[in-house]
Inverse folding.
């Protein structure tokens, strides 16, 4: 009871005190970046499938960290190109089974130290995107993908773009917040094809 | 098995407000695949006399908190709350009205 | 008199009449009223006073920054620099230090089970509940003047924005933009003081979704798990620095925990 009564008073006091000055998103120097990696190597440990090589930065992570996710185009473009070149696009149709794609999109599991490798891997798609109209518990970090194929069709070029974007989002936007689901070996070729179908198959609930 | 309980009883106008916390898994049929474990009976005594006998179900969450208001009461009155679960475990706590 | 009662019905019956509210706000209010936090505080008091370890002593002489055994306001002034260890420590790191020095316990033994489960909370969790409860209502004032405190803030800030791991995530990937959510959970922008304040000032906390009492070190640990990173070591400089950065960002807020959270 005492606690509840105290609350309005203390909130009023809090509103009067000045907030500390916090710089929004600082850009580390290359040396500072190395220091952070050294701290991670010292203070983290491998657990399950989450091995210590994960703290090493690749060219994408290095670029985005150094430029606070906003690199100049002349630095971003060559990196996007090398990322794009490294995508092993499958030959032929990239449309898998949208029903299985929906399951993968729903699952938030995969690649964590608590996950068994090769079991229940998901794309965590609904964590950030609106996709099928049937799922109302969707996140908003990424854009809505509702009706994605309805407006774009499913020509080979569109399939290729969607496959590539899921495989390696950084090939199209170097500092995208979206994980590189194929590049990181979280999802395999068939799973990505199933997600392509979820977005592009005319029979998928996404396009109803 | 019986974890701690905590109770507070305060005089409030002509009433006694009681809040009691109890440690219990309150495991449902579904969670345990047919071996639920939950408090079934709750008894409140005022100076040794039963004033509430309650039945609760699996629908109540883990570590339940109950609050209720008794008519009347005076400083120093003894309130006792006890529970009995479906496995026969029991626990009780007692406090004086403040 | 025979009454059939249920917690939800009771909570409602005695709630003041409320104006139209979102169902989530209503859920939060009801959760707050039925928080079993005090049970963990009770268990924590027992753990604080329990004689154990090779030296068979309790933690009652542990110095959390306000002098040996002083609990009042201790949590609200952490993390801070400690001269005896020459490093910045948060509550859990300091408790571990006391277990090792006062009680003579080994790091291995004392950290074997720092995160508990619904059936059995850990010693660290109940101790955190008990100690944090002694700072209720006091403004959060982590140490900010010592050079090592400044360095901890700087490192914590860098860690917050540092993208790494299989999924290229930093803390800011989820906690860096306003009005975003994962599934239905709102994502607080934790480097903004006005957002960080009410949240940081309510840990440690009882989580209704899994009926567990959880600490800040656990919160950091579970975020890194979901970030697809390796596991941060309990009480490491990296984790203390991150907790320090978040607490300094929230400084000035009256401590309102241990609270209840989703």
């Amino acid at each position: 009871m005492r606690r509840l009564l105290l609350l309005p008073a203390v909130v009023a006091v809090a509103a009067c005190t000045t907030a500390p000055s916090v710089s929004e998103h600082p850009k580390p120097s290359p040396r500072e970046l190395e220091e952070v990696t050294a701290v991670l190597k010292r203070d983290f440990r491998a657990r399950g499938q989450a091995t210590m090589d994960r703290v090493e930065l690749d060219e994408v992570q290095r670029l985005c960290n150094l430029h606070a996710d906003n690199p100049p185009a002349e630095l971003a473009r060559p990196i996007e190109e090398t990322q794009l070149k490294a995508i092993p696009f499958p030959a032929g149709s990239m449309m898998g089974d949208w029903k299985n794609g929906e399951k993968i999109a729903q699952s938030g599991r995969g690649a964590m130290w608590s996950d068994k490798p090769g079991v229940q891997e998901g794309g965590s798609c609904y964590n950030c995107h609106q996709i099928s109209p049937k799922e109302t518990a969707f996140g908003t970090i990424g854009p809505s993908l509702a009706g994605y194929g309805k407006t774009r069709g499913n020509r080979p070029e569109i399939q290729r773009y969607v496959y590539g974007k899921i495989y390696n989002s950084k090939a199209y936007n170097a500092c995208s917040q979206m994980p590189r689901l194929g590049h990181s070996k979280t999802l395999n070729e068939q799973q990505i094809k199933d997600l392509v179908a979820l977005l592009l198959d005319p029979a998928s609930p996404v396009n109803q | 098995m019986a974890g701690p309980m905590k109770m507070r009883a305060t005089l409030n106008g002509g009433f006694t407000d009681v809040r009691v916390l109890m440690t219990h898994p309150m495991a449902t049929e579904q969670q345990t695949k047919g071996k639920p474990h939950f408090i079934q009976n709750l008894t409140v005594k005022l100076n040794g006399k039963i004033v509430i006998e309650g039945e609760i179900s699996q629908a109540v969450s883990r570590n339940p908190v109950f609050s209720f208001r008794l008519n009347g009461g005076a400083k120093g009155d003894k309130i006792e709350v006890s529970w009995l679960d479906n496995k026969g475990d029991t626990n009780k706590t007692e406090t004086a009205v403040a | 008199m025979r009454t059939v009662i249920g917690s939800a019905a009771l909570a409602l019956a005695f709630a003041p009449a409320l104006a139209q509210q979102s169902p989530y706000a209503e859920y939060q209010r009801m959760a707050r009223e039925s928080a079993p936090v005090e049970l963990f505080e009770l268990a924590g008091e027992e753990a604080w006073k329990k004689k154990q370890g090779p030296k068979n002593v309790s933690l009652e002489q542990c110095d959390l920054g306000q002098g040996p055994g002083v609990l009042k306001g201790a949590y609200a002034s952490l993390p801070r620099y400690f001269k005896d260890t020459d490093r910045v420590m948060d509550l859990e790191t300091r408790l571990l230090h006391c277990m090792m020095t006062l009680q003579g316990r080994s790091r291995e033994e004392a950290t074997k089970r720092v995160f508990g489960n619904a059936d059995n909370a850990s010693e660290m969790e109940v101790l955190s509940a008990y100690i944090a409860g002694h700072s209720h209502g006091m403004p959060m004032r982590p140490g900010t003047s010592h050079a090592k405190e400044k360095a901890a803030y700087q490192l914590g800030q860098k860690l917050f924005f540092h993208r790494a791991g299989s999924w290229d995530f930093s803390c800011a990937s989820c906690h860096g933009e306003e009005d975003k959510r994962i599934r239905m959970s709102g994502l607080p922008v934790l480097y903004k003081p006005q957002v960080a304040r009410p949240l940081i000032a309510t840990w440690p906390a009882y989580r209704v979704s899994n009926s567990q009492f959880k600490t800040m070190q656990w919160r950091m640990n579970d975020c890194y798990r979901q970030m697809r990173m390796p596991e941060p070591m309990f009480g490491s400089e990296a984790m203390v620095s991150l907790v320090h950065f978040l607490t300094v960002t929230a400084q000035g807020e009256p401590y309102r925990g241990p609270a209840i959270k989703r």
Q: What stands out?
A: The mean pLDDT of chain A is 90. The domain at 30-208 of chain A is CATH 1.10.760.10 (Cytochrome Bc1 Complex; Chain D, domain 2). Strands of chain A lie at 44-45.
